[in-house]
């Protein structure tokens, strides 16, 4: 049985109540679910990933893996494959992401518009649980566009993910936002910003910029955004099941430091949010100081409105756990919801959103660039050669391969560049991205084949 800090146990039992707390603690005896989010662009930008062949290979097979209900691209897996050794992961065909965090895509696809007459859905809170009535689709500023059959925000010209590393929510945003929307993914910590850059580069997508700045730098630069995601640093209680280090690092004192830092970040973000813009606040923790009490502070301090987001009762998402605070917020609790710990709330800034073109060429920020050499000459390689490439080894390419920069691909999906000099090809894959392990599996993990009802 896992040993949790006594202060955490007392406070969490108090806010959850005995029944919820017991279900939460019981989840520590269960295996944490493994989930991935498939890149909807893999069959658009780089040619089909033999999706029909993948579907055919699954025909007649018995798969109990299932789709994440709040994210059409998300899938639960029965086991945890060796993702590192799947070239398609490195090609950005999918992202290994905890299922609860995918809820940000559901928010953007269902954010309520300001005109009630145009709204076809309504969410309400019943006994701390979210329920749904007549959900069809909802719109932003009275408009609706379709992305893979889902409603998506439109009329949004610029978005900011303020604390974005390692990039799960940022790549999710990029998949949902319109292509002409400029998305800036920022990470204040330099080493984490490099990880963010790698994941964003591999994921692909237009108008996606990675920066390495503090939240206050955006305020000082007087930048304005239609959408800001504040996935703020927190005490990490929601990671206890997956990361034992999060338990040892937790303290009541750190909770106090976190909620104060979170308010500073929100204050900087609010100054950068356009009137009528959307702010998504999220943490991976359970206590009310970092969650509901911060939302209440936002409402008391700024002219903001909390938005209802339609959810299905079967998802078992929990609402507010702060007595006397009944605004719609969304809590994911292990043992109750199939995912790890998450708190999220969507707020709209007062005013009318009038998006203006965003000039991304004159950013007074530290912008990161992967400096990835590109070539239209592609050389598709087998699994063993793909792993050699991802390790940074030199390759021997077919004799008819043109000399110069070529793009190494696996199953038609780009991995990165190499320089063919004839007798060998020098590896240009970034050193920081290379697989460090010397293990060489004989067969690929074939993760995408584990996804039941993959929709592309």
From TrEMBL:
Binding residues for S-adenosyl-L-methionine: 163-169, 187, 231
Pfam family, one: Methyltr_RsmF_N
Domain SAM-dependent MTase RsmB/NOP-type: 160-350
Gene Ontology biological-process annotations: RNA methylation
Catalytic residue positions: 284
Record-level Gene Ontology MF annotations: RNA binding; RNA methyltransferase activity
Name of the protein: 16S rRNA C967 or C1407 C5-methylase, RsmB/RsmF family
Organism: Xylanibacter ruminicola
Source organism phylogeny: Bacteria, Pseudomonadati, Bacteroidota, Bacteroidia, Bacteroidales
